[in-house]
Amino acid sequence: MASLLFRLNNVPDDEADEVRQLLSEHNFDTYETTAGRWQISVAAIWLRDDSRLAEARAVLADYQAQRADQARARHAEQVARGEQMTFSRKLREEPLRVLFYIAVGLVVLGLSTLPFLQFID
C-alpha cells in the first residue's frame, strides 16, 4: 500500500524538484498526485513500497534539515547586510499599503468587538 511521503501544497518549485531528484537518486519508487482542478485533493509524492518508508523519511528529514540550515544562513546574511525586511523599512518603502492594511485591521477589529461593546453600559 502506498504511503504519503511529501506534501506539495505551498511548496516552492525548486524544493519540489530537489525532493523529486533526491528520491530518484535513492531509487525510491514514487508517484505524484495533484491537487486537482479545484485544489481540494492532496498534491503529494507517495511511496509505493511501504517497506522502505522509514528509509525514505530519513532521507527527506536530512534534506529538510539541510534546507533549513541554508535558509537560516541566508537570513543571517541578510540581517548582517541590513537587507532584512522590517516593519519600519516596509513602512518607508510602501507607506500607503501599510496604512491601508492597518486601517483594514482596525475596521475588522471594530466590527468584531462592536456587538460586545453594546452590552457595556
Distance from N terminus to C terminus (CA atoms, Å) equals: 63 Å
* Structural class computed from helices and strand pairing: mainly alpha
Number of domains: 2
Number of strands: 3
CATH class of the largest domain: Alpha Beta
CATH architecture of the largest domain: 2-Layer Sandwich
Shape: extended
Percent strand: 5-15%
Q: How many strands, what sense, and barrel or not for the largest sheet?
A: 3 strands, antiparallel
Folded structure, characterized:
With 121 residues, the protein is mainly alpha-helical. The protein folds into two domains: 3-84, Alpha-Beta Plaits, CATH 3.30.70; 85-121. 60% of the residues lie in helices and 11% in strands. The protein has four helices and three strands, in the order βαββααα. It has helices at residues 13-25, 53-81, 87-93, 95-117; strands spanning 3-7, 30-33, 44-47. It has a three-stranded antiparallel β-sheet with strand order 1-3-2, covered by helices on one side. The radius of gyration is 22 Å and the shape is extended. It starts with a strand and ends with a helix.
Topology record:
Layout: E1 3-7, H1 13-25, E2 30-33, E3 44-47, H2 53-81, H3 87-93, H4 95-117
Antiparallel strand pairs: 1-3, 2-3
